[in-house]
Amino acid sequence: MTQVGKRLREFRKRLKMTQGDLAEGICNRSYVSQIEKGQVIPSPEILEQLAKRLHTEIKELWTETENPSFTLVEIQNSLRHIINRIDEQEWEIARKWLLKLQGAVIPQSEEGVYLWAKGKIAEVDGRLEQAEDHYSNSIVLTQDSDNPTVLIRALDSLGHFYCEHDQPEKAVHLLNEALQLLNRYEISGLLRISVLLHVGSMHSKLGEFYSAIEHLQQAKELNKNYGILYKSGDLYLSLGNCYHQIQQYQEAESFYRQALSIFEIANNPVRLAEVQLNLGLMYKETMVYDKAETCLKQAQKFLSNQLEDELLNFTRIALADVYRLQKCLDEAKALCQSVISSDNEKMLAEAQFILAEVMLMQGEDDEALVHLENARGYFTIKNMQAFLIKTYQLLGHIHLKNQRFEQAAKMYERSITFTAEA
């Protein structure tokens, strides 16, 4: 009798259930009998249903030993279940199953999948170096695999990882290879949707918005054909961002609204905040300031109890700029100062830039100059050309206003230089 079979029998006896009672609606009675005798290894899906019938969790049925000895079939079933849980973004369940395998000897044929799964959990946990290493090692181990889906999954995850961390150039060869393998082996399903989504996101990050839309629309069409909503929130948000960038604002708004609906159902406040932030930025760009203010306030509300300081500060800066444009200068100043007090270097510079604009509007030229010079230092180090252009223009304006003509000319010349290089 295996540990699974032994534990299953113990729980069943404790609840005074027959094998037929336990099996009803899940499998047949003889299958439960075979599990208890150790003659078969149940699939993770069946085991999960049996655990629910027994009012317990799968981990209670698994094993009592710290270093379990799993058969190949048990390991394969476990990994299949982990893949399904990751696809459903049920991270805690996936984590528990991985922990169960931690003491097992993973055969080489399954190590690529195992490392990929460890990479996904590491990424969710914010252990980014480990995630990158696990994905990279998974790719190396699966290059010659008979099952191309294992390699595609690892390529897709590492490519997406680089895009998420502002390194889309590193993702290009990975995601292109994943797409080529999908086409070569005529693989469809959820994996194709995932790769198309991430290829689209990569093109978007590279500023190739029409190519991005083409791939994202293909993913959207597959979801429609399958009658599913796989990664639809991410898909709609990416499409919204692309249409926003090419100034097709009606399409952008439509996709942003669809993304909101998906993330509301998922009860995901951080993603809801991201969509509201993007809507707010779009309304600011189109000078619909009342709607921009509403969306950005809503984004702040979603982030109020989340550990997302950078996103919250970015939202505050955007809202401060909307207040500035509406000439609500005290509100704008207060938000900028709250960001400055958070001590995030990048956000500090952007907050100081907007605060300088506010102070200039209030006639506090000297204070504005101090904040602009502080911001300029960071923008120069990071070569943030768009901000440098605006900073030099504003510096030129301040010097011109105060009749420092030579300094004003230098600032305007630098602004023109950066504009030409952009």
From TrEMBL:
UniProt TPR repeat ranges: 193-226, 233-266
GO MF assignments: DNA binding
PROSITE patterns named among the record's database cross-references: HTH_CROC1, TPR, TPR_REGION
Family matches, as SMART domains: HTH_XRE (SM00530), TPR (SM00028)
Keywords tagged on the record: TPR repeat
A Pfam family the protein falls into: TPR_12
Keyword Metal-binding set for record: no
All copies of domain HTH cro/C1-type, residue ranges: 8-61
Recorded superkingdom: Bacteria
UniProt name for this protein: Helix-turn-helix family protein
Species for this entry: Brevibacillus laterosporus LMG 15441
